[in-house]
Amino acid sequence: ILVLCVSGMKAETARYAVPEEAERGSFVANIAKDLGLTGEELLARQARVVPEGDKQYLQLNQRTGDLVVRDQMDREELCGQSEPCLVRFEVLLQSPLQSFRAEVRLTDINDHAPVFLNKEIVLKIPESAMPGTRFLLESAHDPDVGNNSLQHYSISSNEYFHVYTQRRNDGGRYAELVLYRALDREQQAEAAFSITAVDGGNPPRSGTALIRVVVLDINDNTPVFTQTLHKVSVMENSSQDTIVVVVCASDLDAGMNGEIVYSIFQNSEENLQTFKINPKTGQIRLKKPLDYEEKKTYEIDVQATDGGGLSTHCKVEVQVKDVNDNAPEVIITSLTSTLSEAAPPNTVVALFNLRDRDSGDNGRTTCELTGEQPFRITLLAADAYALVTSETLDREQVEEYNVTVRARDEGSPALSASKTLLVRLLDVNDNAPTFTQAIYTMVMSENDPAGRSLGRLSATDPDAGENARVRYSLVPPPTGTLAAASFVSVDAESGTVRSLRPLDYEKVPAFEVIVHAADGGSPPLSAQAVLRVVVRDENDNAPVLLHPAPDSSAAGELVPRWAPSGYLVAKVVAVDADAGQNAWLSYELAKATEPALFRVGLHSGEVRTARAVTERDAARQRLIVLVRDRGQPPRSATATLVVALVDDFSDAFHQLGHDPTSGQQSQAAEEEMLTTYLIASLCCVSSLFLLSVLVLTANTLCKARVRAELPPPSPSCYADGDFASDGVGVGSTGTLSPAYRYEMCLTSGSGRSEFQFLRPILP
User: Any idea which UniProt keywords this protein has (predicted)?
Assistant: First the structure.
């Protein structure tokens, strides 16, 4: 039963009525009662009113279910003369989605009085007019309808005329002035009286105009139309100036009284705006295009007036034919402009209706989606549709969709219209950051100050907003490993890598750290990359001499005088703690007693004779070898060699210590200093020798004195004899012969001795 009731509610249209210009908040109907729902159900299902047009005139109270007036409605403004005047709307319910159609009829109130377009109406009537002659008067205009519209006319008291109210086919009323007493221009050339148009409202309203009758001289023939009624049809797409109909009238009079002028009688302002007539030919043309949807029929009163002022009239009925000149309209009633990319299929995105103002086949519509998109259209009711998702969505592939709904009618030719809906996808944190490189290699120079930028890490996240905001950090190293994280820092926002302190290439040539990138989602997703920092060597270490030792003033080398060219004299050995070309060493002879006698290997450091040694060469040669690296700027060290040229090696010391051919003061000072060192050494050695002799003598005397005071040895202990010597006395009962003497020496660091010293056995 419930399903049948709901189906009936969707199929039928609820109808209500309310007076026009009702005050805001005026009660219209109780929607909840008509739908069989309670106020709590309306509130839970988010009931709302969706108007057919753009403006919302009605409002629904979700708690009580009352439908009330939101804005005052003017029936004449909304519908004009059309009756009934209906305001259509839909009631939408959520969970599940349902729609119910309803309409409110605006009942007319008497809020307008009849109005004459001209406040003074001039009639020219010949004096020959017979009593009973009828004259068509200009109609008054009243926008109200029904009983509130214009009902009858009346005129003020006069001697010549009565007024009669006539009814047209469309229900409108017009006045005819009837002459009941013959006119006599010689007695009264002009008559004036008022005409009043009264509507049927309660209380009635009225409008007044002045009628001025001018009595013309005799013109005994009035124009006569060939047809008193013309029925024509015109297509609504007819262009401006299209001929509608040609009316024709004739007058038997001659001269001015026989010349006919055609005019459209002012019985409707709309007719005057739509049609025009050629006053001489009677051709009626369009002043503007027609619209079947606004008005379907027109009634035109055409007046033919001769030169004597006599006139007659005929009626022209114009029927407007519909053409397919209105494209369908897509009316969006509900739209979800933002949609989560995690939304499941069949999620409702929008609700919309189709409307075509044409009639028949021209007004039947269908709709479809253009392009390949993850959406489809579902039919809810007649001309009511829902746009839903057809598959899962991914914002990283498509951030937003322009969904185009195309509506098409069944006219010939068919017309179509499109409505584009922008649907933006809201991001879900479903993508982790990705580094542009798995391993980043950066270079820093040793001794660079702290805070210097080494480079920039980059990780991208295809998500959006906070889900795509990447923050960088260093992963703490395991316990017990090199604290490489203390060497550099990473800016959390930009990923810029900066040094934290100067590094020494000789201690830390390179290091690696793990960089962590996390997004701002909840929960956050992350990725890691390896940052390898290579320390570039700087030439901050000078060469260090290994041979000759740098602390010695000069190294002495011996060269026989028979040494040929290329004889190896010595080899200078040096190292450089730097790397690369900063550690590439070259050797050169900076200074020599005889530069032409020696040469130095550029890369080997070998000092060789450049020629054979001769007797003329000085016996003592002094060489200074310069060791230089290839850094920028280069650093260097010097080694000093003293070479003695000897005939044999017996006088090597003398040659190295004395140079008879040198008369320089520095060499004499060196020899003098050496002599001083030798004398001092001889004195120290002699003193130590004398001290040792004295200590040994004192020790011997002390031992002799002690033995003299001891009793003789026990026979049981020294059965084989006694031993008195400078050695240590040892008693033994083993297999060794007693004639042997043993001397034993123990070092001070021997620790526990393997020998046992026995105490003497005293009686």
Answer: Calcium, Cell adhesion, Cell membrane, Glycoprotein, Membrane, Repeat, Signal, Transmembrane, Transmembrane helix
- pLDDT (0 to 100) of residue 10: 46
148: nearest Cα among 86, 212, 200: 200
282 lies in the same domain as 345: no
CA dist., res. 610 & res. 596, Å (int): 7
Strands (E) located in 274-382: 275-277, 283-286, 297-305, 311-321, 329-335, 338-340, 348-355, 365-369, 375-381
| 116 in Cβ contact with 207 (< 8 Å) | yes
Q: Are 634 and 578 in contact (CB under 8 A)?
A: no
Q: Which of 536, 554, 571 is the last residue of a domain?
A: 536
| Domain shared by 205 and 254, yes or no | no
State how far the alpha carbon of 575 is from the alpha carbons of 550, 551, 554, 581, 601, in Å. Answer: 12, 16, 19, 13, 16
Q: How many domains does the chain have?
A: 6
Is the same domain home to 192 and 229? no
CATH number for the domain that contains residue 527? 2.60.40.60
- Structural domain boundaries, residue 101: 14-107
In a domain, 195, yes or no: yes
Nearest to 19 by CA among 82, 81, 87, 66: 87
396, 359 contact by CB (below 8 A): no
Based on the domain organization, do 412 and 454 belong to the same domain?
A: no
Ordered DSSP codes for 616-680? TS-SEEEEEEEEEE-SSS--EEEEEEEEEEESSGGGHHHHHH--TT---HHHHHHHHHHHHHHHH
Separation between Cα atoms, residue 302 and residue 267, nearest integer Å: 10
Cβ-based neighbours of 458, under 8 Å, separated by 6 or more: 435, 436, 495
Domain boundary among the residues 536, 569, 591 is at: 536
Q: State the pLDDT at residue 654.
A: 54
User: If DSSP codes are grouped into helix, strand and coil, which group holds residue 206?
Assistant: strand
56 assigned to some structural domain: yes
346 lies in some domain: yes
Residue 754 token pair: 């393997």
Q: Is residue 662 part of a domain?
A: no
Counting Cβ atoms within 10 Å, is residue 740 exposed (0-12), middle (13-18) or buried (19+)?
A: exposed
pLDDT of residue 711: 58
Q: Please report how many Cα atoms fall inside a 13 Å half-sphere around the Cα of residue 87, on the Cβ side.
A: 29
User: Contact 30/67 with Cβ under 8 angstroms?
Assistant: yes
pLDDT at 718: 36
**Direct distance between the N- and C-terminal alpha carbons of the chain, in angstroms, rounded to an integer:** 140
How many Å is the Cα radius of gyration of the chain?
Answer: 65
Tell me, what's the pLDDT at 552? 64
CA distance 31 to 66: 6
The tokens describing 579, both together, are 């790397």
Alpha carbons 324 and 363: distance in angstroms, whole number = 8
Domain co-membership, 274 together with 245 = yes
**Residue entry with tokens 């059965």:** 719
| CB-CB contact of 629 with 544 (8 Å) | no
The length of the chain is 763
Sign of torsion over alpha carbons 574, 578, 584, 587: negative
Shared domain for 163 and 237, answered yes or no, is no
What strands, in cross-sheet order, belong to the sheet with 243-246?
A: 243-246, 283-286, 275-277
Distance CA 736, CA 308 (A): 189
Question: Three-state SS for 571?
Answer: strand
> What's 398-466 look like in SS3?
CCEEEEEEEEEECCCCCCEEEEEEEEEEECCCCCCCEECCCEEEEEEECCCCCCCEEEECCEECCCCHH
Q: Are residues 334 and 418 in the same domain?
A: yes
Say if residue 528 is in the same domain as residue 549.
no
Q: Where are the alpha helices (DSSP H) in 245-303?
A: 269-274
How much is the pLDDT for 734?
A: 38
pLDDT score recorded for residue 667? 55
| pLDDT score, position 210 | 93
